[in-house]
Amino acid sequence: MEDERSFLDICGGPLTLRRRYYSSYCREFGLSSARLSLRSVTAVTCTVWLVAYGLFTLFENSMILSSAIFITILGLLGYLHFVKIDQETLLIIDSLGIQMTSSYASGKESTTFIEMDKVKDVIVNEAIYMSTKPRLDCLIEVYRSCQEILARQKATSASP
Amino acid sequence: MVLKAFFPTCCASADSGLLVGRWVPEQNSAVVLAVVHFPFIPIQVKELLAQVQKVSQVHVAVLGTWCHRQQEPKESLGHFLEGLGAIFSHDPWLQLCRERGTRFWSCKAYHQVSTTPDKSIEDQVMLIFYDQRKVLLSWLHPPTVLPDCQAGDTTASAGGLADIFDTVARSEVLFQNNQFDEGPVRLSHWQSEGVEASILVELTKQASGPVCLLLASLLSLLSAVSACRLWKLWPLSFIRRKLSTCEQLQHRLKHLSLIFSTQKAQSPTQLMKKANMLVSVLIDVALGLLLLSWLHNNNRIGQLANALVPVADRVAEELQHLLQWLMGAPAGLKMNRALDQVLGRFFLYHIHLWISYIHLMSPFIEHILWHVGLSACLGMTVALSILSDIIALLTFHIYCFYVYGARLYCLKIYGLSSLWRLFRGKKWNVLRQRVDSCSYDLDQLFIGTLLFTILVFLLPTTALYYLVFTLLRLLVVTVQGMIHLLVDLINSLPLYSLGLRLCRPYRLAAGVKFRVLEQEAGRPLRLLMQGITVLCAFLPL
Fold this sequence. Notes:
The structure holds two protein chains of two kinds.
Chain A lengths: L1 E7 L5 E10 L2 E8 L4 H22 L3 H21 L1 E9 L3 E8 L4 E7 L20 H23 L2
Antiparallel strand pairs in A: 1-2, 2-3, 3-4, 4-5, 5-6
Chain B lengths: L2 E6 L8 E8 L4 E9 L4 H15 L4 E8 L7 H12 L5 E6 L6 E8 L7 E4 L1 E6 L1 H6 L23 H10 L16 E2 L10 H28 L7 H9 L1 H16 L8 H29 L3 H28 L9 H38 L5 H15 L1 H29 L1 E4 L4 E4 L4 H51 L2 H9 L5 E8 L8 E9 L8
Parallel strand pairs in B: 1-3, 1-8, 4-5, 8-13
Antiparallel strand pairs in B: 2-3, 2-4, 3-9, 5-6, 6-7, 10-11, 12-13
Helix pairs in contact in B: 5-7, 7-8, 7-11, 8-11, 9-10, 11-13, 12-13
């Protein structure tokens, strides 16, 4: 089962929450934020190059222009690979654990897996540590589903 | 709890047979280690499992049946497989089946209910695929259990997934049977195509024993010589402390004795440390030999020796200019002429002595440099330490100037603070370590005030000399510091771990991640377990 809902993040930008119910004991929540807009990329590139051209007319050194190009390319690559998070996923599997994945715009994925023995409870914390900053309504949806699974897990582990 | 079945990816295309592995009741999971194929005699399978259990102390048993329908079109096999449940009784009994025509699997687990032995409860099953080779080679399991554990004892403290990895790791003896053995039982696992090994690795393992013994004894002899009491006598111990070459040599000796120690590494961290040290020593020696060949090419040593004396002369000349500048009116400040002249002349004479000494040494410099250059074959770090020591020796006069200036300044400040206290009618009480009031006589006050005034007016001169020579000394210390930084970098860069990260990332796994595979409603959930590669987990420095 899969469904999608739209939410807003704390800055007012659009977010999409995608829920997949693989089975009664395994659920996945994916939060995707807005993609990198062409407008912002063009604006930053134009500013950098205008500044570089201004410096070039001042100093008459063509190294400034080539270094501006390098800086733009490296900056964009670094931003895509280390900063811009496309999607954050939470996979909760009963009796195995909880896995959180952040996938960056360049395709890099960083994963953390916490075993179920080490999980006492899932709570909504006051400070927002996620990079796609969702609002409370979105967090409550995810929280409710996680609590359902944890409650079920506690019930089955309590009965011998 | 959901029943978790850990299934090796290499057996997914194997023929039908029996599932052999370990059942972990605490986590309700079955770890499948291998598949036993038809035809087999149940007695021989039980014997093999008992043997494996005795050697590896892992409670291996027959967990269920595996049916690959793609290759067995006959439906009667299903009934045959069910009958096997009666021969090898295990609770719960797993039945994994891979259908023909679909990519989906069916798994059933039957629990024997004690009250009605004929009935059985079906349980929900979750299939988790794992790569046996990667799990074994990535050391995700905890370090080896103490040898005084009894047979059949489960690993006590490790819980969760670490238990699973430990099971796979300890069942190595099960993976020694491969399809080329003429054994009675045919198994399928990650090494059934043949045990993975490399001739070079095996030869190195055989040779490393006696080589390590020999080198360890040599190194212990060297360490004993260096630790003997002769070195503790005054001039030698002083020189030894000051020269960074001796320190670096000792450091390297310690590393080498650790690498060639006859004890095996206890844990993967220790193994990484040893490997990193070995790689660092090898790279060091290689760089040193490169440097040696470069130095002895084109008579570079002669060129260096010829350039050294003019450089030292130049430095002395610059210092003289500096002192002349200080003796005049430096930066517009007005100095006390008499003190200025005295200090300036004293330092100028010192420089003159130093230059004469350098000129005296100049015929021998080439020989010294040649012999010192030979030491580069011990390693680039030793050559760099020697360079740092040579710089220290060549700039010894700057060090002396700094010491003189600092001492003078220190005395002056000391005197000033004491006389300032006198000025205010106070005194430093040495017994009580505090400032006490004191009544001075008139003549004491008079002389004290005079001296105080003199010292205050001489302060700018001394302070300026102190400042200038401290800055010079700082410059030399910075250069030496950079060389030491380079030496430390070569010593401690973990090149082996970096190389592993590039070439064999699964060896550095520090965690697992799960991926949900394609799923159909009504079918069991299938997950793929993979390792997460992290560079920082295995960086013991």
